[in-house]
Design brief:
Rossmann fold; about 45% helix; 9 helices; about 20% strand
């Protein structure tokens, strides 16, 4: 009998709103409020990304450095992470996503979060929601053990997310043919994982993913309450 996995994206799949920039602002307010004066540079970096002058992972590194700093001791960042995760759980989780997670758990599926967000805070949110495993963008550490702005390995996005899920399966000793995978995401960038999964679900999807899901025969769910208004 195959093991059953339920793999969830996080931002706008489980959450109402994206979490990355709110986390940076939350951290800046608590660690060094003066860094908010650098927001024009954050917006400039976002413009550079939209103009395809830098790639997505580089954008994340730049904005992290601007609003948190290049290096920070984990013990300083930990209370910031905990307070941010508490706020997300209280204000930013879709009830439909909570119900789906509870249903998958009750059905015996192993819960896995696979997100482009940084593990440093996505892991805290996942733990509060009862996820057993997290696959996410990792941060590097310097020789003093401080968390730095550079990404360790790949940004967990698009094709890289699929590669990171496959690498996680291998580390866990799970052969692909021995598991049944249900995958939830809101964004077309996750189409490689949707196509690879056994039960692809477009959850709270934007129009491009809805069109693709209907063409491919994938399930479409709306936990946001926006579609159909």
């Amino acid at each position: 009998m195959k093991s059953a996995l339920a793999i969830y994206d996080m931002d706008r799949t489980i959450t109402r709103r994206a979490t990355y920039t709110p986390f940076l602002i939350h951290a800046a307010l608590r660690l060094a409020p003066w860094r908010l004066l650098l927001m024009p540079l954050v917006l400039l970096a976002m413009a550079a990304y939209l103009l395809k002058l830098i790639e997505r992972g580089r954008l994340k590194e730049i904005n992290y450095r601007l609003l948190i700093g290049n290096a920070i001791a984990p013990e300083r960042l930990e209370p910031v992470i905990e307070s941010f995760a508490d706020r997300q759980i209280a204000r930013n989780i879709l009830p439909g996503a909570r119900a789906s997670i509870a249903s998958d758990r009750a059905a015996g599926r192993r819960l896995v979060m696979a997100t482009a967000s940084y593990r440093i805070y996505a892991g805290a949110i996942a733990q509060r929601l009862g996820f057993k495993d997290v696959i996410a963008t990792e941060t590097q550490r310097d020789s003093a053990g401080r968390i730095i702005a550079r990404i360790e390995g790949s940004n967990c996005y698009g094709d890289s997310k699929l590669a990171m899920i496959e690498a996680w399966l291998e580390r866990e000793g799970l052969a692909r043919e021995a598991v049944h995978i249900r995958f939830y995401s809101d964004h077309v960038s996750d189409a490689p994982v949707h196509r690879w999964s056994d039960e692809p679900v477009a959850a709270n999807a934007h129009d491009r993913l809805v069109r693709l899901a209907r063409a491919e025969g994938w399930q479409v769910l709306d936990w946001s309450g926006k579609r159909g208004r």
